[in-house]
Amino acid sequence: MHGTPDLRATSLTSLPETTAVGGGGRILLAAPRGYCAGVDRAVDVVEKALELYGAPVYVRKEIVHNKFVVESLSKRGAVFVQETDQVPEGARVVFSAHGVSPEVHEAARVRRLATIDATCPLVTKVHREAVRFAKQDYDIILVGHQGHEEVEGTFGEAPGHIQVVGTPEEVDDVVVRDPDRVVWISQTTLSVDETRLTVDRLRQRFPNLIDPPSDDICYATQNRQGAVKAIAPKVDVMVVVGSANSSNSVRLVDVALESGVPSAHRIDKAEELRGEWFAGAATVGLTSGASVPEILVRDVIEWLQAHGFPTVEVVRTETESTTFALPRDLRADLKAAGMAPARPHAPREVLPDHTR
Q: So what family is this one in (predicted)?
């Protein structure tokens, strides 16, 4: 469906009101959805690095958890590797939006790699919390999914102080040195409701449990879950665009089902849609995870419109304006090359021309 994909999709205008191209079923389009500021920044880092330094630019892990984004950047010259030892000595490597541990930074230094850190600033905030609480000798409970890159990076900041807890049921296995010196922090892309249940269970065990200074679950994760909750009572089927390894996308499916939607499906692209999912449905809810470019949502809208759901209605619960600047060293190199980046901008939600 695509020529050269526009991963940022900033050339189209947003859809502020209900539109239709005929009778039949309708689509309730959640807003906010799609790219968050951290993802927008991380993708921009790789694109700007390719433009400035030329290919190849190596990227440790997936820059963001989305197949389409990774494949698109690969075609432009990004080389995705699992670990720094797969990067030629002295080459340039980008660290993904999920963050890395000090051990990874040290491995890159030993190999004399030129590093660009695309860690989301909100993840960096959690890393700093872990370091600070470890220095104060607290036992730290990291609420998150074992094996997720973000959790691995945060854990690596203070492995002697951190325990990872994935569900409320795992709280019973937590062992601490002093029940009065326990603090919790969290992965940024979790289910707000499930995290609350886990923290409640922790507080039952440790009444003096200390909260992080500010909410660790990022604004975009919370906003996308809130938008799904808002449209859930009105839809018969929910479609979530996002990859299987995208924690926040998977959580949107859970939130939809927990909010009463009869059925919910996560897909990477429109080609994965199945007609039988929509048999008897009058209204389809549509959203996308925080690492999903809008071009994939446009494809889903076009598929749904061709299969009996011509009306598109945006349901907005929040308006996002958060922006993050590019990493300092990359900005400096761009400026030196006469390629100073534009001012940071918030990701835009856009739709195909024919639905405006």
A: Belongs to the IspH family.
Q: Which amino acid is at 126?
A: V
What is the rounded distance in angstroms from the CA atom of residue 285 to the CA atom of residue 71? 27
Residue 118 parent element (H or E) = none
Instruction: Examine the domain organization and report whether 200 and 254 are in the same domain.
Output: no
248 is in an annotated binding site: yes
What value does the mean pLDDT of the chain take? 92
Cα separation, 74 vs 233, whole angstroms: 40
Count structural domains, the chain. 3
User: What crossing angle do the helices spanning 121-135 and 37-53 adopt, rounded to 10°?
Assistant: 110
Q: Could you give the strand order of the β-sheet that contains 162-165, starting from the edge strand earlier in sequence?
A: 162-165, 139-143, 182-186
Exposed / middle / buried, residue 108 (Cβ in 10 Å: 0-12, 13-18, 19+): buried
The span from the CA of 37 to the CA of 57, in Å, is 22
Note whether 182 and 176 are within 8 A (CB).
yes
Question: Is 98 labelled as part of a ligand binding site?
Answer: yes
247 is in an annotated binding site: yes
Q: Could you tell me how many helices (H) and strands (E) the chain has, helices first? A: 10, 12
Residues recognised as catalytic = 150
Q: Is residue 350 part of a domain?
A: no
Positions of the chain with pLDDT under 70: 1-23, 341-356
Strands (E), 155-223: 162-165, 182-186
Pair (134, 114) in one structural domain: no
| Radius of gyration, alpha carbons of the chain | 21
In a domain, 68, yes or no: yes
Based on the fold, state whether residues 85 and 150 are members of the same structural domain: no
In this structure, what CATH number is given to the domain that contains residue 78?
3.40.50.11270
Q: Three-class SS of residue 82?
A: coil
Place of tokens 């698109």: 72
User: Structure tokens of 208?
Assistant: 């003096």
Q: Is 36 annotated for ligand binding?
A: yes
For residue 9, the model assigns a pLDDT of 45
Read off φ and ψ for residue 210, nearest 5 degrees. Answer: -95, 135
CA 57 to chain centre: 22
